[in-house]
Amino acid sequence: MKFVLHEIKLWFTENKTRSFHFEPNKVNVITGDATTGKTSLWNIIDYCLLSDKINIASTINKKTLWFGIAFSINDKNISIARRTPENDTASSDVYYANQLQLPVNNNIERNISIPELREILDEMFRITDDVKKIFNWKQSKNTVSLNYRHFLLFNALTENIIGSQHTYFDTVFFDMKDYEKNIPLIFEFSIGASNLEKYTIKKKIKDISHEITEIKKYQNQKEQDDSDYKEFINQLFMKLISLGIIKNTEYHLSTSEMLNQIQSIINRYTNLPENPISDDELEDLLKKETDINIQINTLNKYQNEYKRYINNLNKYADSLIPIEFLKKNLSGEILYTSETQPFIQLLESSLMDIKKNIDKSKITPIQVDSDITTLKKNLTEISKKITDLRKVKEDYQITSDKLVSIGEIKHELEYFIQNKKKCPFIETSKIDELIREKKKLTITFDNMDIVKLRLKEKLNDEIQHIYNQITTLSSYRGYKIIFDDKNMNIKLQSPGELFPLENVGSKSNYMFMHLCFYLGLHSHMINVEKTYNTNNYVPRFLFIDQPSIPYYVGNDTKIKNNDKENLMNAFLIINDFISKINNSGTEFQIIMVEHAPKSYWEDNELNNFHTVDEFINGKGLIPQDIFQKD
């Protein structure tokens, strides 16, 4: 990412200011004595880039009203000024403009809030919302999202770490100690070993794996629930059989059939009337039934007797027909004596009476048949009522234990159904589809991991290239330098040895290893950005705080010859690094503060070095007239 720091400016009282101007594609050096404020230059840059932590010395804060920087990023010009901290609290008063010119006097007015400016800088540093979603972690009780400041970690080789044996990233300075474990992830993004696409795929694989696990869990749960459900219904059914409420059957019943019978029993016995039928009501119906039966029997008897009577009359009439024939056809031949005459007349009279009775009997009482029909209909209705009432009485004759058992079964069933987990039905084909998709994504991810390994190898190659330029570490000449991404530091490994060295001795050696790492890191990031045409989140800018720390005591005469040789070797490596980057057509800028005088680079024709200022002879970051004022 293109980045050039053009100016650092301080505003004091009485409209006095102090500015430091920097050149692109150069090693911009501020040299000078100790305690002159050289290191505070980086602290000011960090503060103007909206750090919440105050690293600027309090003596400087007390003499300054505002701090400001002007820089360009990806060909966009920006100037930021921020009021000096008060009461050990970073100020929220910020000035922002899309130009390189900073305010002339100290009448600066706040024109933007910290959150608003951070959003703008996130956009400038290409930290998109998609990238932020990937980097979310907990810091204390708060959730921290990635922002441009996290990548500044790779832009500062501070005095705190330049000679350290184990520490290569100044997380204390950047207040990143609480989420130090996330640095490897940010580092991978920075060197191109990971990108948004890779972490999108990784997240998809994770989400699919979770979905597959959930589906299988649901399916297993559903199978278990179905088994438990069948077993539960079967137990309830067998309990009703043991109570004699349901008859045992040789036929195999399904779970649903058993459930239907159980629910039918529950409904039957739990929906009984609150007040069962009384004996008086049943006796009244039985009495009515008896009365109707008597009436029906009486009418039936009447009909039978009547038919018998008619039949007898017909028989009598038939027996007297010969008298009528004799009288009609043989009256002349009949001998009428005193005895036969009355007898014949009596028979004739009897025949006439019978005929009259037969004629009368032909008129059957009209209401007999209809009455019988009505009575039978009433009898049927009453008999049904009696049957129903007897059934009710029979139901109420169940023992109290059975009623309690049925109540228990009802509540058990309701509780089981109410608490039964509802497992969604999942098509097996969906699982197969997810497994296929996961396999495909895993192959893509694995291929990206291969690229990741290659990029880490290329990073080691760049670091090794810098290391090979060191001429003063004769004891470790020919060693392989390796970045240990597990411990996030540099190790030296002797040829033919399986394991790297745990200790390489002096602070000078570790200074060189830090220098190799940071120069190699930025060279690698530039190559990745150009080769893969990708956006990098780390600015092409490096602040180096005093490579002479292992050697320099106070002035040039106190530096031993071999220490001076080591320091010149370090300066030469830095100078050659800028030459290499410039020759590749890429921009890069180094800001370096040093104890060593400018003669080191001017006398040795280190053409890429540019002396910004010298803090010597009482001169420092704060002008003497300002510093000495109360």
How would you describe what is shown here?
It is a single chain. The protein has 630 residues and is an alpha/beta fold. It has 16 helices and 14 strands. It has helices at 40-48, 58-63, 114-124, 129-134, 183-191, 196-242, 255-270, 279-329, 340-361, 367-395, 400-419, 428-467, 507-531, 561-583, 599-602, 624-627; strands spanning 3-11, 17-21, 27-32, 66-73, 76-83, 94-97, 136-139, 142-145, 156-157, 480-484, 489-493, 541-545, 589-594, 609-615. Strands 2-1-4-5-6 form a five-stranded antiparallel beta sheet, with helices on one face. Strand 7 and strand 8 form a beta hairpin. Helix 8 packs antiparallel against helix 10. The longest helix is centred in the middle third of the chain and has 51 residues, at 279-329. The chain is rod-shaped.
Mean model confidence by pLDDT: 84
Quaternary class: single chain
Question: In angstroms, what is the radius of gyration?
Answer: 57 Å
Sheet with the most strands: spatial strand order: 2-1-4-5-6
Cα distance, first to last residue? Answer: 44 Å
If helices are DSSP runs of H or I spanning 4 or more residues, what is the number of helices?
16
Q: Note the overall shape.
A: rod-shaped
From N to C, what is the helix and strand string? EEEHHEEEHHEEEHHHHHHHHEEHEHEHEH
Largest sheet: 5 strands, antiparallel
Strand content: 5-15%
Helix content: 40-55%
The total count of strands amounts to 14
* Helix and strand composition category: alpha/beta
Low-confidence stretches: none
